[in-house]
Amino acid sequence: MQTESIKSNIVSSLMWKLLERSGTQGIQFIVQIILARLLSPEEFGVIAIVMVFILLANVFVQSGFNTALIQKKNADEVDFSSVLYLSLGVATILYTVIFFCAPFVAKFYNQPVLTNVLRILSITLFIGAVNSIQNAFVAKHMLFKKLFVCSLGAVIISGVIGIVAAYRGMGVWALVAQQLTNQLTVAVLLWSTVKWRPQLVFSIQRVKSLFSYGSKLLASGLIDTLYRELTTLIIGRVYSPSMIGFYNRGQQFPQLIVANINGSIQSVMLPALSACQDDKKRVKEMMRRAIVSSSFLIFPMMIGMAVVSKQLVLIVLTEKWLPAVPFLQISCLTFSLWPIHTANLQAINAMGRSDIFLRLEIIKKTVGLIILGITLPFGVYALALGVAISGIIFTFINAYPNKQLLNYSYKEQLIDIMPSLFISITMGGIVYSLNLFSFNDWQILILQIILGVSIYIGLARTFNLESFNYLVRTIRQLKRKNEYS
């Protein structure tokens, strides 16, 4: 009964997290489409450059402590309060550094507007420090229903403000207003709905204890963020902010889908796996289920999106964004592997092995930088393709420790994902053939989506895929549960 209760709690939490991610990302996606039609690729590129520095600073502000709070079994009010005050102190130091360095960043990229944009958007460091602790409390106690309400409200309010500002001709400042409002609204709504409040206590001993785990995640996060955003920095310096805009818009569509599914699984997996970290067999079962289920959902979406990419960009973003199509297709390959990365890495974190996590990051980024150096002379599209190739290699690197930790081998993982991958590729090939017919963009896109969904579900039923049957059973169980509740 206890196992069934845990499973029910995990599934319920996952569903609320999926609703939160899909709801907020769906609205955000619509907002971004409207803004992309109103604003130029260069204005999106300016924000992309600024966000690199803010993301890097946020790694230090959060310092891996939020994950450490979730992973620690007996984390209490002293732990949460101490981490909050430390994070706010670090945010103050980093904001001061960014404030005075902003003019040099603007001069380096030959974009004077970067100075004020960077200074104002960096205010989110303080808001992010509070949000990270609130999110850790939410995840620790599986309060994802409350997070759903807060996140949805924030994205609606900030979206309206951003669109109105863009209509009024505020340009890049419309994007600044949207970002600031979103972060601030989430913090205010969480504060009013989640009962956690910081206490006037600070324990250096607790901080040191959490830092022994979180410090490795800090280093890992810094390496990962710097590596991921290095491409943006290079494109902005070597090419132009407009090209960054195309690169980021190309990532937008696949990232929206994967962030919803992968982010939901990641948020629920860590506390769930941490709760049973002493039972390796149980951890392996949960990890395998996450890989099988997420692959079944992600693979067809990414392959299908790559196939319909041109029509999608023309209809949604208009012709001025066509240079984003190759980036979109390459990004579909990159993001399709994210759930497999997440499941392997979250299992390692849940087992308390942040030391292994750090070693993996160093190895992966060394390999990634070598590939980056090789592809850089061949142009911006080769650069993006190199990122995708790195992602494939990283999949094997991330999976390696779990051969020993959980007895989950490469062969087992490949067997788990191959059925979904095979029928996804089959579906993609058939759907692509519709491009040979003389239909307009709307007609082709609608036909491709309908045909793709029908073929994929039909093949899943024909081959009796375990992942398909599991998802059907889970949906039916949730439906019965809601009927009786």
Automatic annotation (TrEMBL):
The chain crosses the membrane at residues 44-61, 82-105, 117-138, 147-167, 290-308, 328-348, 369-397, 417-437, 444-463. InterPro entries: Poly_Biosynth_Transport (IPR050833). GO terms for cellular component: plasma membrane. It is a multi-pass membrane protein. It holds the Pfam family Polysacc_synt_3. It is found in: Cell membrane. Keywords: Cell membrane, Membrane, Transmembrane, Transmembrane helix. Its main location: membrane. PANTHER family: LIPOPOLYSACCHARIDE BIOSYNTHESIS PROTEIN WZXC, PST FAMILY PREDICTED COLANIC ACID TRANSPORTER. Belongs to the polysaccharide synthase family. This is Membrane protein involved in the export of O-antigen and teichoic acid.
